[in-house]
Amino acid sequence: MKRLLLPAYMLVLRVASLMVPREARRDWLREWTGEVWHVLNLQAYGKTAVFVAGAFQDAYSLNVDLRRAATRQTHAAAASPALCLLLLLLAGVASLGMAYLLPGTRAALLPSPYNDARTLVVVSPDGVSRSPAPSISLEEFRYWQHAAHGVFSDLAFYQMARKQLHMGHDAAVEISVARSSGNLPALLQTSGFPAAGHVSESGPRLVLSDALWRRDFNADPHVAGQVVFLMGEKATIAGVAKPDAWRLPGNPEAWLLESDSRMESLAAYSVGFVVARIQPSLSHDAAESSWHMVVPQKDGGIAGFTCISVEHYASEPFVFFAFAALLALLALPATTSLPLGEYPYNPRQQSLLLRLRRWLFLAAKLMLILPVVCFASLDVAQAFSDTQSVQLIVTFAAMLAALRWALQDQRRRCPVCLQVLRNPVRVGQPSRNFLAWNGTELICVVGHGFLHVPELPTSWFSTQRWLYLDASWRSIFRPAEIAPTT
Amino acid sequence: MARMGAEAKLSHTAALILRAISAGYVYGFSVMEMTGLPSGTVYPAMRRLERDGLIQSKWEAESIATSEQRPPRKYYRVTRAGKATLEASLRRYPLLEKMIPQTEVEHV
């Protein structure tokens, strides 16, 4: 009889085991197999069927318990402070990575390719230096070449234009070209530009940007020396500039280096940019990044010009960020309350270390928010032509939102374990607000305490309050979740 | 292993099972026999007591089961936390001690 019943009961147990999660199934089946064998061995045939029927209930309850435990673990992980900081860190790394990929933002992150970038300046009339535009006439440039030796050791002129580049075989592309005086590469003192030779001897030289060389010249390694037509004249390709070699105003795809005689023939009223090297005797102060220049005019008046260091331009996005972040910080009290709540001092449940940890957590969040917003705003601004304005607006909005979130997140966390509080419950009635407590109550699932958030701030309950739970409450919390409190 | 505080409150059924294991009824079926509870109640309750760290299970050595030509059994013992909880439960349910007197022998 036993020999016949045992396989049948084993089959029933196998069916019941299908309810048990896979990871616990083998152990569960092994235990029930052993137990059924012993029950049968005791010759309790009548009891065995009832006994085996209980396996279904056991399998079902084990299934429910394991699923609940998994859900609880997921919630605990999502509420943990470590995950919060990790996500912020990942967001920071992602936005930094994006900034390195975008050409416009990469220049702000990489060191300057120019030797002594502090003494390399862009000259602009007073009032327009913050947003450089072509504003210096060729006539002024020519005058400075002769009269400003005491201020500049060398200076170059360039104009931005969109022109057709003819590459032979009827192939032509429209490119953005910087038409400049031949001394521009020498003035920049960079290894990013190829040696162009003496321009006056061999006619105009053309330096291609890395992007143009790859796009329209198929990255031809023998491109140097080829002759192309640009602006109605022949130009010899001198070579290819390295990526990120250009940090001055304008976004040229090629540089046409003209001889002095050709520059002399250009119209005196045409405007462009002037780049210059400040005389070493004028740049003693290492912190100085701009110089003011006064030039007497033909009409007897005086014109003011500002010489802004290229190094300053490179740091400008971060200056804008700091300014917008400061504005957001000032605007923060208008959008949310700054106090984090009332947390009564409790030496048994909050040691100095725990209190310090809570503030360090807030500081860590704020520290991680800064690079996230900074690099993300730089990334977004690259999609628009007016990058500075967009960066200011995006930084202000994102910083304000991020600071609000940081404070709100801090208020919704347990001051002891820093986990997000859960199970919000509405308590009281709004109509009885002046007579009794009315608001939302949240609980720390670990059992450290309750948070009372008033629905309407009153003179007797103006901000959220924390209530520590003593040891007598512990029995209602899950043991696995009980954490040390000191 | 999770630990439950000494002051943790158990239901009467859980306390009965814990008392049975403490008294030496170390297998699921023997606990059933002692308490009169069905298998569908005893085994889930024992799993939860083990999850809460009040009891600990251990598989019988394979060699013993093989030498006796039977499958191995899983047996349970009360942990230190379980003993403390049982003491608190016995104060709450004083009749448990009379229902299941303490023995020195393990019942199978």
Describe this entry's structure for a reader.
The complex is a heterodimer of chains A (about 475) and B (about 110). Chain A is an alpha+beta fold. Chain A has 13 helices and 15 strands. In chain A, strand 10 and strand 11 form a beta hairpin. In chain A, helix 1 runs antiparallel to helix 2 and helix 4 runs parallel beside helix 12. Chain A is elongated. Chain B has about 110 residues and is mostly helical. Chain B has one domain: Orthogonal Bundle (Arc Repressor Mutant, subunit A). Chain B has a two-stranded antiparallel sheet with strand order 1-2. The relative contact order of chain B is 0.26. Chains A and B meet through helix 2 and helix 3 of A and helix 2 and helix 3 of B.
Task: Produce a short descriptive summary.
By secondary structure, chain A is an alpha+beta fold. Among the domains of chain A are: 2-79, no CATH class; 117-311, no CATH class; 422-481, no CATH class.
Write the layout of secondary structure elements.
The complex is a heterodimer of chains A (486) and B (108).
Chain A: H1 2-17, H2 22-41, H3 45-79, H4 81-101, H5 103-109, E1 120-125, E2 136-137, H6 138-147, E3 152-166, E4 172-181, H7 184-188, H8 199-202, E5 205-208, H9 210-216, E6 227-230, E7 233-240, E8 254-258, H10 260-264, E9 271-278, E10 290-296, E11 302-309, H11 310-335, H12 352-381, H13 387-411, E12 422-427, E13 439-443, E14 449-454, E15 465-468
Parallel strand pairs in A: 4-8, 5-7
Antiparallel strand pairs in A: 1-9, 1-11, 2-9, 3-4, 3-6, 3-9, 5-8, 6-7, 10-11, 12-13, 13-14, 14-15
Helix pairs in contact in A: 1-2, 1-3, 2-3, 4-12, 11-13, 12-13
Chain B: H1 12-22, H2 28-35, H3 39-51, E1 55-59, H4 62-67, E2 74-78, H5 80-92, H6 95-99
Helix pairs in contact in B: 1-3, 1-5, 2-3
